Amino acid sequence: MKILVIRFSSMGDIIYTTPVVRCLKKQLPGAEIHFLTKPAFKYIYDNNPYVDKLLLLKPTLSETIEDIKAEGYDHIVDLHNNLRTAIIKLRTGIHASTYKKQTIRKWLSLKFNLKLVPPVHLVDRYLKAVAFLGVTNDGKPIDYYIKKDYQLPALLPASHQHKYIAFVIGATHFTKRMPNEKIISICRQISYPIVLLGGNDVKVNGDEISAAIGNNVHNACGITSLDESVFLVSKAHKVIGFDTGLTHIAEAFNVPIVSIWGGTVPELLGVQPYMVKDVLVAGIDLSCRPCSKFGLEKCPLGHFKCMYDMPEQPISEFVNIK
């Protein structure tokens, strides 16, 4: 049996496909599992032992469809469910099963602050698309395979190599990020060394935070690569992070996590921390929350209460527990 699994984006959504791919490979003896995604997300499946071949989206959809036809697949598992995947399924004529997005329910829930989407994790929603093959959830975490054998002394100062807290301060959209002054306040309450992680876009934020706190905070934002950041997360005593890919990747390593949510909520998309034994999901109930599914560039009402009014004590207490 030869199966193609499709998910084009984004980082978090692709990360949550890894249990599906693993279950397909392990529960269907002799099956060949391929995965199709955008070139930008190739790294998520690099070194993954459950994928026999990684296909990358070509500049034109026609080129991609020709690649798919040449492989001779028995089934397509569409975990994206958009116009492009619909065209792929139509033009290849391959038997397909498709993930149900519940688009209308999500829109109504967001628009009218209703709870019409059952609190089922995205992984379990994905797995429904492979149930026809007899594949079931194996109850294990997501998979992520670090590319190199990194060493802490090469990435962190000596003061931050033992029992440090990894604080992921980056996120794509403003309403997912906690303001610097709030992060500074939380960091002052943490008794462990802190390593700030994120891309170049939050390097200045990290500089401001580390300058305010002093030697207890090491700013690695914009310095470490994504893979190095994943390594640092995997070796952390605990992780604090927002609704962003690196925080979700941390779930692969069974590290205690504080998952902080501002303008977005995990229940709407089914992306609450998955199979993590020790986790605190931090967020407050407001009539204006959630304000979007994926985050916005500013608070629509201007007050940003979902982050500014976030209680700090539960976060610091969770982190400081030995």
Summarize the structure.
The protein has 322 residues and is an alpha/beta fold. 33% of the residues lie in helices and 14% in strands.
**Overall pLDDT level:** 95
The 3D shape can be described as: globular
Structural class: alpha/beta
User: What is the CA-atom radius of gyration, in angstroms?
Assistant: 20 Å
Strand content range: 5-15%
Largest sheet: 6 strands, parallel
Q: Which spans of ≥5 residues are poorly predicted at pLDDT below 50?
A: none
Name the helicity range. 25-40%
Cα distance spanning the termini: 48 Å
Count of helical stretches = 14
Order of SSEs, N→C? EHHEEHEHEHHHEHEHEHEHEHEHH
Spatial ordering of strands, largest sheet: 8-7-6-9-10-11
User: How many β strands by DSSP?
Assistant: 11
What does this structure look like?
This protein is of the alpha/beta class and 322 residues long. Helix content is 33%, strand content 14%. It has helices at residues 11-15, 18-27, 61-71, 83-92, 103-112, 122-127, 152-155, 180-188, 203-213, 226-235, 245-249, 266-269, 305-308, 313-320, and strands at 2-6, 32-37, 53-56, 75-78, 96-98, 165-168, 194-197, 217-219, 238-241, 257-260, 279-282. A 6-stranded parallel beta sheet has the order 8-7-6-9-10-11, sandwiched between helices. The protein has a 5-stranded parallel beta sheet with strand order 3-2-1-4-5, with helices on both faces. Helix 3 packs across helix 4 and helix 8 runs parallel beside helix 9. The protein is globular and about 60 Å long. It starts with a strand and ends with a helix. The mean pLDDT is 95.
